[in-house]
Amino acid sequence: MKKVILLLLFFTGFNVFSQAGSSPCDALQLYPYTGCGNQSGPQYAGHYQTEEASGNNVPMTGTSTINPACTTDNETAQSVRWIEVVATTTSFTITNLTDYSGAGAATAEQRDYVVFSGTCSSLTQIACGASIPINGTLNVTGLTAGQTYYIMVSQSAAAFSGYPTANAAATCITSTVPHVASNDACSNAFVLQNNVSYTSTNADSTADGPSVCQNPASGSVENNVWYQWCAPANWPVGQLAYLNVNNQVCNSTQGLQLSIYGPGTTCAQITAGTATSVVCQNPGSTTDYNYTFTATANQCYLIVLDGFAGTSCTYDIQVSASLICDTPPVAPTVTVTQPTCAITTGTIVVTAPLGATLEYSINDVVYQSGTTFSGLVPGSYNVTVRNTTTDCVSTATVVVINPPAGAPPVPTINTTAPTCVANGFSQISNYVGGTTYTFTPAGPTVDGTGLISGMILGTSYTVTATVGSCTSAASASFTNLATLAVPSQPTISTTAPTCSSDGISTITNYNGALTYTFTPAGPTAGAGGLISGMTVGTSYTVTASNGSCSSVASASFSNLAMLVT
Question: Signal sequence span per UniProt (predicted)?
């Protein structure tokens, strides 16, 4: 365990798997424990106090912009690892477990440890240990429980000078107060809010329950943690819920296994092994999880995540109504065959990425396993790739299929709206003499000025232009509308005066939706067409308007005064 054969040169043997640690803001989080051991029989004990579950060397691949004065070398010129630790009390201890064998091992194993407080983007050095040998320690004191501290690990000056390729490291973080998983038991399940992502861990949890999945039972339990998610009251009937477990950083390649229990499931049923899983992932995996289940409004679901064989991980967990993709496929690379006058459609072929779990689509309509899309008319197409395992979709690559080379320009249509006295009409504004214009549906023709005749009012048309054997793409659709409706001429009925009243006039074909305008101004038409406000003995005419068109004026009319008695 933790061995690297060192002859005349160092040959580093180590576990290689997904690890953070490239920079302070991508630091690998370790969780303090009371010791550096992590074995429980043939499996891991569920701790995460070292980079790798067994304490083996792991390559350092990070960089530093900081060159602390407390070391005699230049960390900006070396590979480093960044570690972050949340203090559980006022101190923790860093132990160098870096282990090589052979001549010069004692020098090659020396590591520098520099400790910082602050934020990942604004660090303040608080402790330093230079040239710490294997099993040597740095005790960091004066800490605040709950605060995050950052550790930069690098080769010592002697190790870097003598054995620069021996640039792996193994580090252990211990404390008198170990990290504790607050959601270690089903009864203490952490409540996940809908559509909220949480960074979480199963480090330092213990077994709770007989198996990860039940009915059927599968997956032994080593270090599981619990979550509860409740569907909101407005959750639509039949809506899928997505459990997204992303960005796993684990101390072994075994990864996580999980189960989701249906609504109404109790912790007692799970302990008794009589519950039923609606989702089960066993064995473990370090890939992103994107599992779906049909949720019911106001119902709650228990979720358990367990480290396969005692693996510990840090990860993001979220339940939502949509898929969360942290690692979608890359945008596709394509080759394009443009149309010609002989072959008037184009072809798109996806050349990368390729794989058995990938499907391809244009305009996100239908996905297919094949990479070729043929028979494409000129236009713009969005080409995407979908991973059938995660259901994640790439960003689109936009491809433009051009009109055939040498084809005449697409006809541009100007349509004039109808008026109160004439129908609308259309004209090809980029008309070119000697070009054949073909209308769909057939019927219209075009004259030497581009004016189109023979269109049926209300019918939608497109038109193409052809020169020789080359035809343009179709124009945008266009339609001629009929002459606007003109209101009927108002008809006036005038009642003669009597010995007791003046004469009155009424619009007999009155329409309440129309506006009536009198000349000279003054009178108004009320309900039923009765005209008020007329001056006795004055002659009037009136027109009716629908907002677009006005009628012709009525015959002139006047009201006479009351008869003299």
Answer: 1-20
Cβ-Cβ contacts under 8 Å for 360 (sequence gap 6 or more): 332, 350, 367, 368, 369, 370, 371, 373, 383, 384, 385, 386
Single pTM value for the model? 0.61
Name the token pair of 283. Answer: 């064995």
Q: Give the closest residue to 236 by CA, choosing from 318, 322, 151.
A: 322
Residue 169 and residue 192 in one domain: no
CA angle 255, 257, 260 (to 5 degrees): 150
Does residue 314 share a domain with residue 223? yes
% the chain with pLDDT above 70:
96
Range of the domain at 39: 28-174
195 & 242 share domain: yes
Nearest to 245 by CA among 295, 179, 297, 303: 303
What pLDDT digit, counting tens, does each position of 165-189 carry?
Answer: 999 999 999 999 999 999 999 999 9
pLDDT score for 39 = 92
Split into its structural domains, the chain has a count of: 5
- The per-residue DSSP string of 501-556 comes to S--EEEETT--TTSEEEEESS--EE-GGGBEESPPTT--BEEEEE-SS-BPPPPPP
Q: What is the 3-state secondary structure (H, E, C) of 430-485?
A: CCCCCCEEEEECCCCEECCCCEEECCCCCCEEEEEEEECCEECCCCCCEECCCCCC
Before 441, cis peptide (omega within 30)? yes
- Model confidence band, residue 19 (pLDDT cutoffs 50, 70, 90): low
What does the mean pLDDT of the chain come to? 92
Q: Provide the pLDDT for residue 323.
A: 66
3 in a structural domain: no
